[in-house]
Amino acid sequence: MNYEDRDTYGMYKDSAIGGSEPDTSRGPGPELMGANTLVGNDVYNQRDEDLGDIKEIMLDMRTGRVSYAVLSFGGFLGLGEKLFAVPWAALTLDTVNKRFTLNVNKDQLETAPGFDKDDWPDMSDPTWASGIHAYYGTQPHADETRL
């Protein structure tokens, strides 16, 4: 499912005409988008491999920034799936295919630091955060490293 399918307020309905690129002069997307419409969006890599979908968006309540998208990968009908906190900076919105792109292959994602739905990490821990950013090749915002 993509963000246009979950657009209950119609904020994206006039953003694309005839399947073309979005008209950024109308509506909030793609530069400003509703978080609720992004949860459930598919994530693919540059090889067009399905890497899963976004289960949650994690906000830094001190700064108001989006820190991570929690990606679900693997499993079947929720069984055996693994969750990954992917730095928001590692994702790119693909407005043509209406999904996100993450620059990792499936093997890299399978070995990425992940967690079980019943055992979430302390995402505010600077040591944990630096390991996640290092894995995906991103940098945390300077004010995200303070406690």
Runs in which pLDDT lies below 50 for 5 or more consecutive residues are none
Give the CA-CA distance, first to last residue.
36 Å
Provide the spatial order of strands within the biggest beta sheet. 4-3-2-1-6-5
* Oligomeric organization of the protein chains: single chain
Shape: globular
Structural write-up:
- The chain has 147 residues and is an alpha+beta fold.
- The chain is built from 3 helices and 6 strands; from the N terminus they run αββββββαα.
- It has helices at residues 35-38, 106-110, 126-136; strands at residues 42-44, 50-60, 65-73, 82-87, 91-94, 99-102.
- Strands 4-3-2-1-6-5 form a 6-stranded mixed beta sheet.
- β1 and β2 (50-60) form a beta hairpin.
- The longest helix has 11 residues, at 126-136.
- The model has no long low-confidence stretch (mean pLDDT 84).
Characteristic terms for this protein:
globular, alpha+beta, 6-stranded mixed β-sheet, single chain, 147 residues
Characterize this entry briefly.
With 147 residues, the protein is α+β, with helices and mostly antiparallel strands.
Would you spell out the secondary-structure blueprint of this structure?
Blueprint: H1 35-38, E1 42-44, E2 50-60, E3 65-73, E4 82-87, E5 91-94, E6 99-102, H2 106-110, H3 126-136
Parallel strand pairs: 1-6
Antiparallel strand pairs: 1-2, 2-3, 3-4, 5-6
